[in-house]
Structures are given as C-alpha cells and as structure tokens.
C-alpha cells in the first residue's frame, strides 16, 4: 500500500494518485482516504456511492485494470480498518490519496501504508509542509520512498535534502493534467519507479 501524501491541499495529491494508478501496468486500486474533502471519484468520473460488487468502480479512462474506491461518507473513524481490509483483500497495488494537513485524519493512512510518496508544488511553503508530512510518516514507522514535484519541469535545488528522500519525478503544469501527454509521461516514469517494489 502506497500513500500519496503532502502537507497542503491543492498540491496535486489526487491527480498524482489517479495518474499513477492509471500508469501502473496491472490491476490497481486508487483509494480516497480524504473523508472531509473527497474528490478522487469526481476526478475519475465515477459515482461517490460504494460499488455494489468488488472493491471499487472501474476507472473509465484507465487503459489497465484500475478501480477507484470513493471515500466513505461517514466520519474517518474506521478508516484505518477499511484500509487494512483493502490491503489484505487484494493482490493489486493500493494507491491511497491522503488528506492534507497534520491531524489524525492525515495520520491514519500514513500509519496503515507500507510506504509513502510525498507530493508538493515547487513553492517553499508547500515543500516545507511536505517535509512535515515526511516527519509524520517516519514518526509512525512508515518509510518515505520518494517525492514528486508538481507543476514544475525541474525540482528546486535542495529538495531531496529537505524531504529526506529522492525526487522521483517532476510533473509539468497543464490545464487538463490527466489528458496531457507530458503529465502522462511523468506518471509513467513514476510507475516504473514503484513497479519493482512489493504490491502490498
């Protein structure tokens, strides 16, 4: 289970979670863990209601077998158990779109995940908040395996040191990011970087 996390809303976490899930060669679950501000289902164009069968809704735009699991409508209590159930019930890679911030709702998916990928824009405030998210993940014992800098062609100097992990890819700015060829290439690079890791 790979948590897609960052300190600020609007950093590109949801787009990265869905873009990565679509770029993975093989079955993938993209799970929305943001119960307060859920939008993964809307970005993917699937219903917010839970599916009648299976774990999630088939992603209509995915070239591979990607399913989208909307955030639960109730409060985040029980979210950790739900994430653990999804991890145990499937052999697919589970990509989790995490809430922003430093509250308990942001900590739960970091604690359940096997690894964390940080997402931030190139602005100093966003990167500082991503570094705080990295510290939260490490505090609960979950390794941070890389960073993604969105809306940028190159990562600012020193980002690897600030985050304590390598920047795996940068994602260029685009009006319709998931339909943009440059953005899709960036997520394919990211997919290759996580492909040889355990699909837990």
TrEMBL record:
Q: Name one GO biological process term.
A: negative regulation of cell division
Q: Which GO terms describe its molecular function?
A: ATP binding; ATP hydrolysis activity
Q: Where is the CobQ/CobB/MinD/ParA nucleotide binding domain?
A: 2-153
Specify where the region named Disordered lies, as residue ranges.
44-68
Highest taxon listed in the record's lineage: Archaea
**GO terms under cellular component:** cytoplasmic side of plasma membrane; cytosol
| Database matches in InterPro entries | CobQ/CobB/MinD/ParA_Nub-bd_dom, P-loop_NTPase, ParA/MinD_ATPase
Check the record and name the Pfam families matching this protein.
CbiA
Q: Which SUPFAM superfamilies match?
A: P-loop containing nucleoside triphosphate hydrolases
**PANTHER family associated with the record:** ATPASE INVOLVED IN CHROMOSOME PARTITIONING, PARA_MIND FAMILY, SEPTUM SITE-DETERMINING PROTEIN MIND HOMOLOG, CHLOROPLASTIC-RELATED
This protein is called what? CDP-4-keto-6-deoxy-D-glucose-3-dehydrase
Q: Which organism is it from?
A: Halobellus ruber
